[in-house]
């Protein structure tokens, strides 16, 4: 059976597959959970199995300063 994309839950065919975080994704589905920027396999951060771009999103959300951890961020990314 075909692997299922973690983002859209649809089957991933070999030609469109990108492997990251130990799972197979559709290329357009591998994008930052926060800002939706398309990511490259291995060129991004991860939290709870979800992909994030390293900067600024992962650093802002989960970085050592703890910025954004309390949900006090006043801006949202659309």
Automatic annotation (TrEMBL):
Q: Which residues form the LIM zinc-binding domain?
A: 3-64
Q: Which GO terms describe its molecular function?
A: zinc ion binding
The record's listing under Pfam families reads:
LIM
The record's section on InterPro entries has: Znf_LIM
Q: Which gene encodes it?
A: CRIP1
Matching entries from SMART domains are given as: LIM
May I ask which residue range the UniProt record assigns to the signal sequence? none
Designated name of the protein? LIM zinc-binding domain-containing protein
Tell me the Gene Ontology biological-process terms attached to this UniProt entry.
Answer: intrinsic apoptotic signaling pathway in response to DNA damage; regulation of gene expression
Record keywords: LIM domain, Metal-binding, Repeat, Zinc
Write down the superkingdom of origin: Eukaryota
